Structure formats: C-alpha cells, structure tokens
Write a sequence for this structure.
C-alpha cells in the first residue's frame, strides 16, 4: 500500500474541494437534492460503484476521499455513508442482476437514494438482538418490527432493512436484508427530534406486516450455492456493508475536523487582543497543531482500511476500519472542541457556525458503532482479552 496519494487521488481531492467550496451554504447537504444531484453528475456519489452499472469503477478509497473533502468544505453529505457506501456495496456484491440494474445506475446518477436501517430500540449496540422478523406468505414476505435513528428515510426512495427470517425447519433466526420502498403500506416513520443541526433527519420506523415481493430480499429467493444471495447470505451481506460504513464515517469525521480546524486557524491568524495574533500564543497554537496531527494519523488508518477493503481483504479491513473510525471520531471531537474554544465567544455564535459541530462531532463517536464497542472489539479480537458480556 503506498503511503502517499497517487496523482489521480490528489486531483480528485482538488476537484471535489473546488466543487464543494463553490456552493453557497444554503444549497448544501443531502436535504437539498440539487447539490447531491450535481455531485452525482460529476461522478462523485457513485465513484465506488461498478462501471457496468453507471458507476465510476473505483472503490471505498475514492468514495471516502470524496466525502472527506465535502466535509472539509463544510458540507458533509451524511447519506454518502449510507446510499453508495453501504447499500451500493451490498447490492453490487450480493444483489440479483435485476436488483443491480434497478438500483445501481440510479444510486450512481443521484436520481435515487437508499437509507439503511439496522438499529432497534431494544437491541442498540447488540445487533444480535434485533427482532424485526420476516415471514413467508406464499411467495411474498411479511416484515414486522421497529427501527430507530435511521437517517434520511424521508429523502430515500427505499430503505435497506436488516431483519431476520424465521427458519421454519430449524426455528433459528437469521439476518436478512430487504429493500423496502418508502411508500410501502405498513412502513411508517416518525421523525426523531434530534439536537443536531443537520439536513439529514433521523427516524423511528414501524413495520407492521409490510408485504414485500420475493425479489425485495437482497440476493433473491432461496439460498444460492455460491452463498452470495438469498436467506442464508444475510451475514455476509451485512458484513460487506459494515466495513464501508465505518471507513466512510471515519472520512466524515476527518472532513468535519479539518473544516473546524481550518476555520480556527484562519481566526487565530487574524484575531489580535494583545500585541500579536492569538495564534502566536502556544496555548492556542499547540492544541491546534495536535488536532492536525491526530486528524492526519486518523486519515492514514482510514486509507489503510480502505486499501484493505478495496483489495478484497474483508477480514483485515474489519480491524483497520474499526480503528480508523475510532481514531477519526476522537480526532474530530478534539478538533471541534479546540476550534470552538479558539474563537472565544464567537465560537458559540450562530454567525460563526462552529458550536453546532460540537453535537455533530459526537455522532461519529456513537454511530454506526460506539467508541466502547470498538474498544471491546480490539480488546477481544486483537488483544485476545476475555469478554465481560
Ligand atoms: C445521528 C445518528 C444517525 C444514525 N443513523 C443511523 C442509520 O442511518 N441507520 C441505523 O441503523 N442506525 C443509525 N444510527 C444509530 C446508531 O448506529 C446507534 O445509535 C449506535 O449503534 C448505538 O446504539 P444505541 O444508540 O442504541 O446505544 P446503546 O447500545 O444503548 O449504548 C449506550 C451506551 O452504552 C455503551 N455500551 C453498550 N454496550 C456496551 C458494552 N458491551 N461495553 C461498553 N459499553 C457499552 C455504548 O458505547 C454507549 O455509550 C444513528 C445514530 C445517530 C446518533
């Protein structure tokens, strides 16, 4: 793995940064589809999707780079974590030919979006406890359950819902992924009142005997011999989506941290209350320098995770993606905190717009997997320590 970026990647970064910086704040975010649409038309949203289905033929390396630059420009597109990274990946790797043809070109050209719902109120971090259950009714499926904190369901054309099938033969429950169109009868959403200043909203979902055709199941009907589709493939599908989600969340956090840091540095260069600008005081300069170092280190791990994932090493990418997400979230929270502090009273004004990042930065510490669950993963998987739960 090269430790420096290729010229192509540098050029992509520059182009995305120029594009994202060129848009007025009001036109930004996933909520305003025109920005998303324009980004998609430039090939940014579907850069990781297969060329045969209208994508750019790149990987999570390129997609995470795009998201980081969007965030660094103050325009984090949260749904990039979900629509092309999780849903696009799962469908490209495990979808039936019909699912690929239906969804991938539309996810790539920005005309359609897909949300992703796994979190449940009574399961939380313990996704083994999810109870959203699919049962067969003729050739159809009936899906029943609840989800919480699912982002962007209102703007997504469908949500990829993680459920379980009731296996009639053995009574075991197995994870299974279903594509649920937004307006399917019985699929209800309630907006959660989050203290987050973001265009993408979070929803609680109720699925009440939601009737879905057989082809709503990712990978199609009964198990494929290859293990790539059907009812038995849910675990593989889920894991295929989770590494990109973590890598993209890391990129999201690094972008936000860079944005906050650059605003603070610009302020510290100018603001003068004694004889020199406040940035000349080491009490201001050093924490900003540390924040920069932490963000750079987190980016290195994120690039490693993306490289492993794109090289097809799902297992190796798992550890790196977790570590990258952890490092990036911690670096982001620290960078934002220091940036707000650097601006003094202005750090808390709406005009300067940094204070709301204090809450936003915490998201990457909690979702999609919390700081503690990553520390648990490293304790058990990497260090071989015993489990307490
Ligand atoms: C803004 C936002 C957007 C989101 N978007 C989505 C989405 O699009 N789709 C989706 O499915 N979900 C989404 N989520 C949900 C997110 O993934 C969950 O919030 C996260 O997985 C944590 O689950 P929980 O909130 O139930 O916390 P809990 O599991 O209840 O955890 C609470 C606290 O306990 C700690 N804890 C739990 N278990 C342990 C343990 N064994 N050891 C140590 N500490 C532990 C956790 O680290 C945490 O600090 C989103 C969340 C937010 C905040």
């Amino acid at each position: 793995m090269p430790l420096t970026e290729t010229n192509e990647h540098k050029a992509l970064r520059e182009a995305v940064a120029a594009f994202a910086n060129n848009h007025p704040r009001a036109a930004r975010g996933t909520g305003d589809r025109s920005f998303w649409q324009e980004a998609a038309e430039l090939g940014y949203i579907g850069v990781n999707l297969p060329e045969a289905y209208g994508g750019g033929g790149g990987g999570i390396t390129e997609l995470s780079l795009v998201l980081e630059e969007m965030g660094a420009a103050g325009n984090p597109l949260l749904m990039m974590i979900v629509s092309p990274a999780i849903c696009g990946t799962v469908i490209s790797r495990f979808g039936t030919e019909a699912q690929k043809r239906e969804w991938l070109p539309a996810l790539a050209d920005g005309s359609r979006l897909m949300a992703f719902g796994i979190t449940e109120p009574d399961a939380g971090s313990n996704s083994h406890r999810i109870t959203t259950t699919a049962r067969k009714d003729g050739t159809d499926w009936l899906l029943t359950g609840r989800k919480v904190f699912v982002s962007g369901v209102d703007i997504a054309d469908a949500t990829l819902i993680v459920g379980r099938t009731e296996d009639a033969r053995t009574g075991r429950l197995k994870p299974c992924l279903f594509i649920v169109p937004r307006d399917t009868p019985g699929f209800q959403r309630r907006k959660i009142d989050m203290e987050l200043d973001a265009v993408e909203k979070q929803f609680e979902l109720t699925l009440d005997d939601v009737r879905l055709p057989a082809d709503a199941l990712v990978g199609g009907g009964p198990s494929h011999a290859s293990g790539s589709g059907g009812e038995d493939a849910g675990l593989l599908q889920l894991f295929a989506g989770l590494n990109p989600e973590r890598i993209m969340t890391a990129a999201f956090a690094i972008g936000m941290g860079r944005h906050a840091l650059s605003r603070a540095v610009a302020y510290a260069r100018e603001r003068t209350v004694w004889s020199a600008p406040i940035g000349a005081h080491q009490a201001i300069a050093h924490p900003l320098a540390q924040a920069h170092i932490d963000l750079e280190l987190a980016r290195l791990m994120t690039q490693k995770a993306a490289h492993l994932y794109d090289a097809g090493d799902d297992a190796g990418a798992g550890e790196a993606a977790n570590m990258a997400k952890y490092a990036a979230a911690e670096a982001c929270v620290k960078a934002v905190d220091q940036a707000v502090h650097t601006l003094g009273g202005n750090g808390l004004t709406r005009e300067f717009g940094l204070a709301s990042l204090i809450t936003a930065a915490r998201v990457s510490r909690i979702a999609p997997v919390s700081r503690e669950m990553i520390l648990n993963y490293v304790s058990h998987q990497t260090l071989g320590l015993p489990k307490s739960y």
In short: The chain has three domains: 7-113, 116-226, 236-382. Residues 7-113 form a domain with the Butyryl-Coa Dehydrogenase, subunit A; domain 1 fold (CATH 1.10.540.10). The first strand starts at residue 114 and ends at 117.
